Amino acid sequence: QVQLVESGGGLVQAGGSLRLSCAVSGIIFSSNAMGWYRQAPGKQRAMVAIISSSGTTTYADSVKGRFTISRDNAKNTVYLQMNSLKPEDTAVYYCSAPGKWGQGTQVIVSS
Asked: Strands 18-25 and 77-82: what pairing?
């Protein structure tokens, strides 16, 4: 059974930082691309960042230079370091493996 468990969300002031974590079980983690997506109120879920099994990263234009996705294959965990946060980054953030989603973690950025 595949499980993705996010943590690290919360309330932060604009300009602050948060690090999200996603612990994964039930798949061969090192062989899979992993991603972070977000869904703001009234909007569709959108890609934030993706990291391939080899470590190649892709970012949405809106977060380039501010967010960093990384993975620790020894811990079966993928991270999203979020710096210089803006109010428009407020959303529920979801971890994703192929065909699977986590439950989401709320990020609120106050102005």
From this structure: antiparallel
Residue 29 DSSP SS3? helix
Size of the chain in residues: 111
Percent of the chain exceeding pLDDT 70 equals 100
CA 33, CA 11: separation in Å to the nearest integer? Answer: 28
- Contact predicate 11/90, CB 8 Å: no
Distance in angstroms (rounded) separating the CA atoms of residues 109 and 13 = 5
**What would the mean pLDDT of 100-111 be, rounded to a whole number?**
97
- Beta bridge partners of residue 40, listed in sequence order: none
Q: What is the pLDDT of residues 86-99, one digit of tens each?
A: 999 999 999 999 88
- Report whether 37 contacts 46 (CB < 8 A): yes
Q: What are φ and ψ of residue 31, in 5° steps?
A: -95, -5
Output DSSP code: residue 42.
T
CA separation for the pair 54, 31 (Å, rounded): 8
- Tell me the three state secondary structure of residue 21: strand
